[in-house]
Design goal:
Elements: H1 3-17, H2 19-22, H3 27-36, E1 37-45, E2 53-62, E3 74-78, E4 94-96, E5 99-103, E6 108-113, E7 125-133, E8 147-149, E9 156-157, H4 173-176, E10 180-183, E11 186-189, H5 197-203, E12 222-232, E13 238-241, H6 247-256, E14 259-262, E15 270-275, E16 279-282, E17 285-288, E18 293-298, E19 303-308, H7 311-324, E20 330-338, E21 344-350, H8 358-370, E22 375-379, E23 381-382, E24 385-386, H9 395-398, H10 433-445, E25 449-456, H11 461-476, H12 480-485, H13 513-531, E26 538-542, H14 555-560, H15 569-587, E27 591-595, E28 617-621, H16 633-639, E29 643-646, H17 649-652, H18 676-680, H19 702-706, E30 722-725
Parallel strand pairs: 13-14, 13-15, 15-19, 21-22, 21-30, 22-25, 25-26, 26-27, 27-28, 28-29, 29-30
Antiparallel strand pairs: 1-2, 2-7, 3-6, 3-8, 4-5, 5-6, 8-9, 10-11, 12-20, 16-17, 18-19, 18-20, 23-24
Length: 726
């Protein structure tokens, strides 16, 4: 080999090993780009292409003293809409104004210089225009913490994209409206505008009704309060007496009020806790009901008595007592009789998309207790993260519990939702067994049942990447049997799909026996975690938003469900999955829960509940956008025997904006805004009565909602299956 050939070979090898250095990119270059690249994102218009696309302009200004190189670097961003939907997703990407844009997974896109890109000189400006799918009308739609890196170098967050100051104002109609078009016989108009100060004042200009008559929220069934007669606990000589079965409630009370515990009943100045049958009148019928209580505050004889149907009832009586108590421990004469309207009064908390530590969960439990909420729907996993450690499956949290820049996703999953390139921040974190059991104990003390959700078979990107990392490690160590035990993806599946959140790899395969090995491992571990504190009663498997085309070309599924390649193949496989999952959980005496579409065929037909082995199946009815025709699912499922948890997104999703204003944070896929009036006005027993407007803000007609003959609006026949609200 001659000298020139050797030099060429050496250069080629170095280019492969140190591509960033060959391109002239060093860590200092990346640091300078991150510091000096001033990015501004502007929506130009949502209204030029019907419902299909909106126009975006990125303006890049070089605030530094050196040029931003013409190649060698890549910017990674989270964008919640598909960019250039006519071309992406496509591994080849698409070039716009000298920038190549490639979709990776979820909301992650790569922006890198194409061959026509020129270096940006100091004070130079580069404008890039592209199209996005549908529309963007809120600043928080544009996720922060864009970052820049190059192969072999440390990624850096671009300083100008921290926060949302880099997002331009939505100061024109074409920016804050989603659509406004008429094409042939089709038309749709966005009726919402940001509130003016005058309009905001008008809708809040409510007559002063004086002091609220509601001493306690939620309002008890019966309440009588006489403020002319009071007692004062501030003397600090009051005691609480209780039977042993109410030790938890007595301890709670001593932490909230200046009272001490005793077993000896004094003549006065005592709070007595007791469990006895409590009869309440509901719909004109006198009856006993779980969690009912009575509360008596008797100033003349200086005592307070709380009697509960059960310990939970006593606890809720304590909460009502706390509501009546002033800051200086003055309590008016009162008589309250109360019982809950629904057995299930819940709150969902999603820690998969953004992680929160156990201390935040504790604070949430304290607030739930005040409002007598008793179910905690714990959304622990999703595409963006797996948040609970399972012994023997450490990769679930080691990989799936962290987000950072790792294109192979072997050490962590790629950043999503603006979490940035490092594991610092809300993109990363998980609960250990000890953390989880502390959460269970804190919940138990407040009579809150924890319902863990492990979302599958869709929404499993983090799970799939974690288990693939585990598989690869075991194979490399020669542990093939262990590697195969929990395989979740069919290697011969060539199906192509894209989920609502833009993942193309977020489904586990229900046709592999190893999938059920994994699920049983998860269920058994959860049973163990709960056992000594709060026995696991309900396992929530998610089941929602499985993308069209999933498993269609799976060899394993063609063996299990012979006609899985037909247009309804996904539904057949999903129903098979639910039946297998039901068998596993029923074996352990656990009830099953899912989002509504997790237990339904395409459209509005529920699965045959008689084929499911659990005592109860809870279905969370969420997808009720009125004009989509699914609002009847809740009542259909209830009539078929499912226990329904009302979770309607148009009224009960708190991640939506409070006003239709670009400055208000939140998504708006179900409704343009949700305020307290809408939520407090929600009528679970009259679902169609909640339908006032379509997503556009246009009034919705009865025909649009129920069809010409009214058949779409299925009536609720089995009220007993309306479990509650989440």
């Amino acid at each position: 080999m001659n000298f020139n050939a050797r030099i060429l070979l050496l250069a080629t090898c170095c280019a492969n090993i140190f591509p960033a250095l060959v391109a002239g990119i060093t860590q200092e270059t990346i640091d300078q780009i991150a510091t000096n690249m001033d990015i501004k994102h502007d929506i130009l218009s949502n209204l030029d292409d019907g419902l299909r696309t909106f126009q975006v302009q990125l303006t890049i200004t070089n605030r530094g003293k050196t040029a931003i190189p013409k190649d060698g670097w890549v910017i990674y961003i989270c964008y919640i809409r598909m960019i250039e939907p006519n071309y992406l997703p496509n591994p080849k990407g698409v070039v716009r104004d000298g920038i190549k844009i490639t979709h990776l997974q979820g909301c992650t896109f790569a922006l890198e210089p194409a061959s026509t890109f020129e270096a940006i000189q100091p004070n130079g400006v580069k404008k890039i225009k592209f199209l996005g799918e549908n529309w963007i009308v809120s600043k928080t739609d544009i996720m922060p913490n864009w970052y820049v890196t190059a192969p072999g170098l440390t990624p850096r967050t671009i300083v100008s994209t921290v926060g949302n100051s880099f997002v331009g104002d939505f100061d024109k109609v074409e920016k804050w409206k989603r659509y406004d078009f008429k094409e042939n016989s089709s038309e749709l108009h966005d009726k919402y505008d940001p509130y003016t100060t005058k309009f905001r004042y008008a809708i809040n200009d409510i007559k002063d009704l004086g002091k609220s008559p509601s001493y306690v929220i939620p309002t008890p069934l019966e309440i009588n309060v006489d403020e002319s007669k009071t007692i004062c606990l501030g003397t600090r000589d009051w005691v609480v007496i209780y039977p042993d079965v109410l030790l938890n409630e007595a301890n709670y009370l001593t932490k909230k009020l200046p009272v001490t515990k005793t077993k000896q009943k004094p003549l006065n100045r005592y709070i007595e806790l007791d469990i006895k049958p409590v009869k309440v009148t509901i719909n004109g019928k006198l009856q006993e009901k779980a969690e009912a209580y009575t509360l008596e505050v008797v100033p003349g004889k200086e005592y307070i008595k709380i009697t509960g149907q059960d310990a939970a009832g006593v606890f809720y009586g304590i909460q009502s007592l706390m509501s009546l108590t002033s800051d200086n421990y003055i309590i008016p004469k009162s008589n309250i009789t109360d019982a809950p309207r629904f057995a299930y009064r819940g709150m969902e908390f999603d820690v998969a998309r953004n992680f929160f530590g156990k201390e935040t969960v504790f604070k949430l439990f304290d607030m739930m207790a005040i409002y007598k909420l008793n179910r905690f729907h714990f959304h622990l996993t999703d595409d963006e993260g797996w948040r609970l450690k399972f012994e023997g499956l450490e990769e679930l949290t080691k990989v799936g519990g962290h987000r950072c820049h790792d294109l192979d996703e072997t050490n962590c999953i790629m950043p999503q939702l603006g979490s940035g390139p490092t594991t610092i921040g809300s993109g990363s974190g998980f609960y250990t067994k000890e953390d989880y059991q502390e959460i269970l104990q804190y919940a138990k003390e407040r009579h809150i049942q924890v319902i863990p959700e492990i979302d599958m078979p869709g929404h499993s990107h983090a799970l799939n990447k974690a288990m693939q990392s585990r598989y690869n490690k075991l194979v490399q160590n020669g542990q093939m049997n262990d590697a195969k035990r929990y395989v979740l993806v069919d290697p011969d599946d060539t199906s192509q799909y894209k989920s609502i959140q833009m993942y193309t790899d977020n489904a586990i395969n229900p046709c592999l026996e190893s999938t059920y090995n994994f699920i049983e491992k998860i269920v058994k571990t959860l049973i163990e975690y709960h056992e000594t504190i709060m026995p696991l009663q309900v396992y929530h498997f998610g089941g929602d938003e499985v993308a069209k085309g999933t498993w269609q070309n799976s060899t394993a599924c063609k063996k299990v469900v012979h006609n899985s390649s037909n247009p309804h193949g996904k539904e057949l496989v999903k129903e098979y999955f639910v039946r297998r999952l039901s068998n596993i959980t029923a074996t352990y005496g656990i009830n099953l829960a899912a989002w509504e579409d997790g237990v339904m065929k395409s459209g509005t037909e529920p699965y045959n509940i008689s084929a499911l082995k659990n005592d109860k199946i809870f279905a969370y009815a969420w997808d009720n956008v009125w004009e989509w025709g699914y609002s009847n699912r809740a009542y259909k499922l209830a009539n078929d025997g499912f226990k329904i948890v009302m979770s309607q997104a148009t009224h009960l999703y708190f991640d939506h904006p409070y006003e239709p204003d670009p400055e208000e944070p939140g998504y708006y896929w179900a409704t343009r805004f949700t305020d307290t009036r809408k939520t407090f006005g929600f009528m679970p027993e009259n679902i169609y009565g909640n339908a006032k407007v379509a997503r556009s803000g246009e009034p919705i007609t009865k025909e649009q909602l129920c069809g010409k003959e009214g058949k779409t609006c299925v009536k609720l026949k089995k009220f007993e299956n309306l479990a509650g609200i989440d």
